[in-house]
Write a structure and sequence with these properties.
Chain lengths: 550, 175, 396
């Protein structure tokens, strides 16, 4: 294709429909149109003009808005599918995901899992879909913004008649005594914040051109957001760990390479009660307990030097504070968030050694369920030995064994040593049951009390991409506002011999524009442009034979 | 702009986009965590104590193959594996293969009973804080890392092993 | 204070009903004077309509403020409060667009929707509930309020689109005309829900059942409507009342489905009564009133509402939402159903804008898109909140 030289002298890029400078129609087929398509000012979209190599083909594929919309709709449908059943990451499971979906949702869950929809948003195909939208954003914007910029920069005050006559708002009239009014019109235009240019008695008024850049600015913002999202997968940018820590415990904070340690002093749950005010009475009666506060009081330590996993570090206190929901604890780009808790987990059990015959209490022992002693000496020839410890007991074929290392349901095999039985009597003690497998004993361990401890579930987060995503979001919003709250309005007044042509164009909100034009041209000799319609009224008019719109 | 320049520009932009997307997809599939143990990488070093308080440091075993096993007394397959491991240990310990059996942090009492019940002779060390398990990404049990004499992870085995498997693994990390 | 608040809401509810009538009268009155510039002159009835609407708006804001004072936090934290706030924003958005374009027909459609929304909201618990820790956040307040404002402005786009469709219903194919009527039917189902709930709540109908839930636990549930759909392995506790007709499996929320069925049935009855009395489709019933409207202006109102609403929605639902989530959970995006549906809404309106800007989808196509967009917003507000989110609640 060749560059096109217009009769006004401007040389246009190949494929141009309307001359960039004067607006003359350069493409034959366009001349039959009553109203011009002004979407990209009749510029040549680059991609459509070169289509030779594979690169060009890929480029022009992504340059199409149609493709862009299809991609958006696909992303929309895919996202919706992901909400039909809960995603794996938003669910707490005690069984394998496959089992979970089958148990909870039957055949549908099975299919959902088999198709990989349980992890839809992390799947490669979903990521590629979003990435294609990103590619489309980049290429569409480059392809349109550049020619549009050039066309708007090169536009001249005096436009070709074929351009003016094919604008949606247009009218013509005698040019007899308009001179006297032109000055008034110019002043009014300026009062409405138009930039007015004059050339040989022709007027071109324009405002809000910047709003044409809105779409491209917001696309840049989106691209930055996508880059930010991409960077999250880069090492060191993003940490997302869970830390379960019980009261009194000091633990390394996961994701910090053993650099930071945390001590949980206390976990607190508060609920609302009468003292919180009369207005809540009804709700509290209907809903029962409503939590008011979840809080962990902690101290942060920093380890001295490099610490290997498993090594006992020398700790230096950094700071103390509280972690509450909505009030994370921050340090060195990390945040600790109150995410979950477990209350009243057993930590120690107290028993009394009792002589069955007399109910005489010989002594009391307290067993730390996380680390029981081998032997508890009670003096005077009395002692309790722990032969076996089952923190989470279950009986399989009558034999006790432990399900997990957590003291959920502790059981002990004791050897009770007394002066009468220096060899000891065997007793198996679990919650609410005692077995004496080797015959009736003279002594028993009577359960007294249990100590409990609260666990706090803290989320450990670090996200170095936040700044980028925030900047992208801000740019996006700025662009959208630019493009949607303002509009690009242009008015042309051209004297052509005996007649004067008045045309106007806006990229949106035509009705409001017409009101403004009416105010500007009111009581002058200039003809007020007529809205030749967007075509919406036509169908109605033909049916009814009534002209509702001028 | 000439056609050639345009082609170069388009190719550059498309290449950049493809590279960026490729990187993200790769990181997403590969898991992307740099600090956890992975086959082919150096095994993360650690220091743990046994029940008597002796310290074991992984890096001290450079020059030897290390059979790094994670276990718990509640883990059924472990009960079968541990005696088999012990028998193989008797054969391979003189050929430069060491077993380090990391307990997942249970009560001392339970561990001691287990060692005594099964007469284990290799070092059993306790990961009380869970830090080593996290560094090696352990879940569920049993799990075994094969580490060669250069300290590089050769393989990662989860699930039940029989004695023949164990022997084969020992052969693989023999210096 | 709480009582004052309820009264204010009630009065505004009545005022909106009255204002609707005035706007309706205003359209009729304007016949004949509508020519070149059909909307620059406003009729007396229209003026009265907008004045009454403004009073209603002020009273409704009064409801909001008094309830805030009473409860100690801005009332946007449960279904009743949010939908009511959304209806305030909808009136506000209507007033802005009315100020810009002076179209009384907008009021004829927008205000009944406001009335339905307030009615619908009132069917949920109206207790002033103290805030759970997750909800105690200023970012949440900003997030919810901005989102509601954005959605309300987008809703005006729906209203203008709906007027466009009803106005042009006679030029449409049978299939399309059927769908226009379907929209009317859905609106009446909401009326059906309000009617059924109100009737049985006045009659004080209550039915307690025990059932076995998804997790296999015995749970009690109270129905306030006669039970058509009983839950999984139910046993009836209450004396008297209707026995459930059908038992459902555990993974279906039987109570929700029961309510939905009642709304549908009652709505269908109301619809049939209207059809029998008028002997015409509802769309055809309304069409003559709208005949004089200008398509271009309706299209512009619809489009402009999207242009104003889209940035506000993006800011509120996505950006403020992410900021809130970042403070509450340390992750600004968690692929929670509610979030995903906000994203879907955003995708949808992006597609809408692109189709309009680049593919020239004006007029009827644009009007249909506006309707679908609002359907997505309502789906997120009602269905996702009540059904999907029930599977997964924000823990903590």
């Amino acid at each position: 294709m060749e560059r096109v030289k217009c009769e006004c002298g401007h040389v246009n890029p190949p494929g141009t429909i309307l001359c960039e400078a004067c607006g003359k129609i350069l493409v034959e087929s366009e001349k039959n149109k009553k109203i011009l398509d002004m979407r990209y000012e009749g510029t040549a979209r680059r991609s459509q003009t070169y289509n030779r190599t594979i690169i060009d083909k890929i480029w022009s594929f992504f340059s199409s808005v149609k493709v862009g919309v299809v991609l958006i709709v696909l992303a929309l449908i895919a996202s919706a599918i992901g909400t039909i059943l809960p995603q794996e990451m938003n669910t707490t499971m005690t069984v394998t995901p496959e089992q979970f979906y089958a148990d909870q949702y039957g055949w549908f869950g099975r299919i959902y899992y088999a198709l990989g929809f349980h992890n839809l948003y992390q799947s490669t195909w979903y990521m590629l879909l979003i990435a294609s939208i990103g590619v489309s954003l980049v290429i569409c914007s480059i392809d349109r913004a550049v020619p549009l910029y050039k066309a708007l920069k090169r536009q001249r005050v005096t436009r070709h008649n074929s351009f003016l006559k094919r604008q949606r708002f247009f009218n013509e009239g005698p040019a007899d005594n308009i001179q006297a009014h032109l000055q008034t019109v110019k002043e009014r235009m300026e009062r409405h914040r138009y930039r007015v240019l004059e050339e040989n008695g022709n007027i071109f008024a324009e405002k809000g051109r910047f709003s044409r850049w809105g779409p491209y600015v917001n696309h840049i913002g989106l691209i930055i957001v996508l880059i930010g999202a991409m960077l999250r997968s880069a090492p060191g940018m993003y940490v997302n760990e869970m830390l379960w820590i019980k009261e009194g415990e000091t633990k390394a904070i996961p994701g910090t390479n053993q650099q930071y340690y945390l001590k949980n002093h206390e976990f607190i749950v508060e609920v609302y009660d009468e003292s919180d005010g009369e207005v809540y009475q009804e709700a509290l009666k209907n809903r029962g307990n409503i939590a008011k506060n979840y809080q962990t009081n902690v101290t942060l330590y920093k380890a001295e030097g490099e610490v290997l996993p498993g090594e006992k570090p020398r700790l230096e206190e950094v700071k103390s504070g509280e972690i509450r929901v909505n009030h994370p604890f921050r340090f060195d780009h990390y945040g600790l968030y109150q995410a979950s808790y477990k209350l009243h987990e057993m930590s120690a059990m107290t028993f009394q050694l009792v002589k069955k015959e007399t109910d005489e209490v010989i002594g009391t022992i307290t067993i730390d369920l996380y680390n029981p002693e081998k032997k508890y000496d009670l003096g005077n020839g009395y002692a309790v030995e722990i032969l076996y410890y089952f923190p989470d007991v279950e009986f399989k074929d009558g034999i006790p064994q432990t399900k997990s290392p957590n003291p959920n349901n502790p059981a002990f095999a004791f050897q009770i040593i007394s002066p009468e039985h220096p060899e000891g009597e065997r007793s198996i003690v679990a919650i609410q049951q005692t077995l004496e497998p080797l015959g009736e004993n003279d002594y028993k361990l009577a359960f007294q009390s249990v100590d409990t401890v609260n666990y706090s579930g803290l989320m450990v987060r670090k996200d170095r991409t936040l700044g980028l995503i925030a900047i992208g979001g801000a740019i996006f919003l700025f662009g959208v506002i630019l493009g949607s709250f303002w509009q690009h309005r242009r008015i042309w007044i051209k004297q052509d011999g005996e007649t004067v042509l008045v045309s106007a164009h806006t990229n949106k909100n035509w009705y409001s524009f017409m009101k403004e034009i009416e105010i500007i041209l009111e009581d002058t000799a200039l003809p007020i442009p007529v809205d030749r319609g967007s075509g919406l009224e036509k169908a109605v008019n033909e049916n009814k034979g009534v002209g509702a719109n001028g | 702009m000439t056609k050639k320049k345009r082609l170069v520009l388009r190719t550059t932009i498309l290449t950049l986009l493809v590279l960026a997307i490729g990187f993200t997809v790769y990181m997403n599939i590969a898991g992307g965590r740099s600090d956890t143990a992975e086959v082919g990488k150096k095994a993360p070093d650690f220091v743990l104590k046994d029940l008597d308080g002796h310290e074991y440091r992984l890096s001290d075993y450079r020059g030897k193959g290390v059979f790094l096993n994670f276990w718990g007394t509640y883990c059924e397959p472990c009960k079968d594996e541990m005696p088999a491991m012990d028998r193989q240990y008797q054969i391979y310990k003189d050929q430069g293969v060491e077993i380090l059996a990391v307990n997942v942090g249970e009560a001392e009492l339970a561990i001691e009973k287990f060692i005594n019940d099964y007469d284990l002779t290799f070092p059993v060390i306790v990961d009380e804080s869970g830090d080593v398990q996290r560094a090696y990404g352990i879940f569920p049990l049993p799990a075994t890392y094969l580490i060669n004499s250069d300290g590089i992870i050769v393989d990662y085995i989860t699930g039940r092993m029989d004695e023949a498997d164990i022997q084969e693994y020992m052969e693989r990390i023999k210096p | 204070m709480a009582e004052v608040s309820s009264i204010l809401l009630y009065v505004s509810f009545i005022l909106y009903l009255i204002a609707t009538l005035f706007f309706g009268a205003s359209i009729r009155q304007k016949k004949g004077i509508q020519k070149q510039n059909p909307v620059s002159r406003t009729s007396v009835a229209g003026k009265i309509g907008i004045i009454i609407t403004s009073i209603g708006f002020v009273l409704q804001v009064g409801y909001f403020v008094t309830r805030w004072i009473a409860g100690g936090y801005p009332p946007i934290s449960n279904m009743f409060e949010f939908i009511t706030f959304f209806s305030i924003m909808l009136v506000g958005a209507f007033m802005i667009l009315y100020y810009l374009y002076r179209i009384p027909a907008l009021g004829v459609f927008a205000l009944p929707i406001v009335v339905i929304l307030i009615g619908y909201a009132s069917m949920f618990s109206r207790d002033i509930t103290p805030l759970s820790p997750t909800l105690q956040s200023n970012w949440l307040i900003v997030h919810v309020m901005t989102t509601a404002a954005g959605q309300a402005i987008l809703a005006i786009s729906f209203v203008a689109g709906l007027i466009y469709l009803v106005k042009n219903v006679q030029q449409m194919s049978r299939a399309k005309a059927f769908w226009v009527e379907a929209i009317m039917f859905v609106l009446i189902i909401f009326v059906g829900f309000i009617a059924a709930s109100t009737t049985f709540s006045i009659a004080n109908y209550e039915m307690d059942l025990m059932y076995v839930n998804k997790e296999g636990e015995e749970t009690q549930v109270t129905y306030h409507l006669p039970v058509i759909f009983g839950p999984h392995e139910y046993t009836v506790i209450s004396e008297g009342g209707m026995e459930p007709l059908i038992e459902l499996p555990a993974w279906v929320n039987a109570k929700q489905l029961n309510t939905l069925t009642w709304s549908f049935l009652t709505g269908a009855v109301i619809y049939l009564v209207i059809r029998l009395l008028a002997r015409r489709r509802i769309a055809d019933l309304l069409q003559p009133v709208l005949q004089k409207m200008n398509n271009d202006i309706l299209d512009e109102v619809s489009y402009r509402s999207v242009l104003i609403g889209f940035p506000v929605f993006t800011l509120g639902a996505l950006i403020f939402g992410m900021i809130y989530a970042h403070f509450a959970w340390g992750r600004f995006w968690a692929w929670d159903p509610k979030e995903v549906w906000a994203l879907i809404t955003w995708f949808f309106y992006s597609a809408f804008l692109h189709l309009r800007l680049s593919r020239g989808w004006h007029g009827e196509k644009s009007a249909w898109l506006a309707v679908i967009g609002f359907a997505i917003i309502m789906f997120n507000l009602i269905f996702v909140n009540l059904v999907i989110a029930g599977l997964h609640s924000y823990a903590v």
